[in-house]
Amino acid sequence: MRIAILAHVRQRIAPPFAGGMEAHGWQLAAGLQARGHDVTLFASGDSDPRFRIDPVVAEHYERTFPWAEHRGSAPLIAHLDAAYAAACDRIAAGGYDVVHNNSLHRFAIEPRRTAVTPTVTSLHVPPYDALHWFVRASATPGHRLTVTSATQLAAWWPEGAPAQASVLHNGIDTDAWPYRATGDGRAIWCGRITPNKGPHFAAEAARRAGIPLDLFGPIEDPDYHAAEVAPLLGETIRYRGHLPGEALAAELGRAALFLFTPCWDEPFGLVAAEAMACGLPVAAFDQGAAREVIGEAGAFAPVGDVAALAAAIRQALAIPRPVARDRAVRMFGRDRWLERCEALYRAAIADHAALAA
């Protein structure tokens, strides 16, 4: 198939990944390309040059419109609207068999556009006002919608999802997150350093449980890091920077436990699946899709309850490492995910053809 992938452009679609959406977009492009599809990645122009890039914007917008300073700003909205309008026009004129839309922008899901090119839209976020009603109006033949968990399906459509919507769990290349049979006693937390990811809770709980903790990831909110995270750092709680995937996988494989502390309605939790693939059981806040993703490979605590999270750390350490690895491979293996993507593409194309007949 000739496939256009329309990405979001806040960050580069390139390693080291700023977050799960970047990792998802990169793995989707790489996986489909490896399976013989003709893929064009519509993303920021500074994304990974190993792909054929059609730049939506010249560089990712975090560089010129920092998130912490420009949330909801009129100049940023105008910048993105113009960029996505032009990109959607190029896709419509490009003769693509299907577009996989990961952009979270309203233009890509307008019925007048999905009527031209069969579209699969993956929603990586909970419903929010800027997109919610556009999504609900977009469930038309030829447009398939996916969410990353059953939790999110119910959040987007509490009255019941339309026939065009389904759950598509994120996939990971489990070979890139190799299993190790033993750990060295450390816990690891990784993700964006921002309040809704809760790294300060992980640090407080690890200290209470008496387990060393290494924190990894980009510092997205410097003020939060300085006020809430940095004061907790010391000999046993360390911030160790933002690592590329191979180096992070090596760190995870050597560790004993993963801490996952979402403080918002986390749609999936890709970092937890990656850690599980390395054999790490997980101590997690029971928020969003955490329980759906982690299942028998973890122990859970209410959001914000440090004492309960410390207890969950001790419980999770008793879970055998093969349990975590087996769940990651069985539920989130990349081939299974890509096969489901291909099935969705075929369904969208068939719906589109039936309308034209």
UniProtKB/TrEMBL annotation:
Gene3D superfamilies noted in UniProt: Glycogen Phosphorylase B
Leading EC class: transferase
Q: What is its EC number?
A: 2.4.-.-
Every Glycosyltransferase subfamily 4-like N-terminal domain range? 19-175
**UniProt xrefs under InterPro entries:** Glyco_trans_4-like_N
Name of a matching Pfam family: Glyco_transf_4
Q: Does this UniProt record's set of keywords contain Protein transport?
A: no
List keywords of the entry alphabetically.
Answer: Glycosyltransferase, Transferase
Q: Does the keyword Glycosyltransferase belong to this entry?
A: yes
The protein's GO terms of the molecular function aspect are: glycosyltransferase activity
Would you tell me the protein name for this molecule?
Answer: Glycosyltransferase
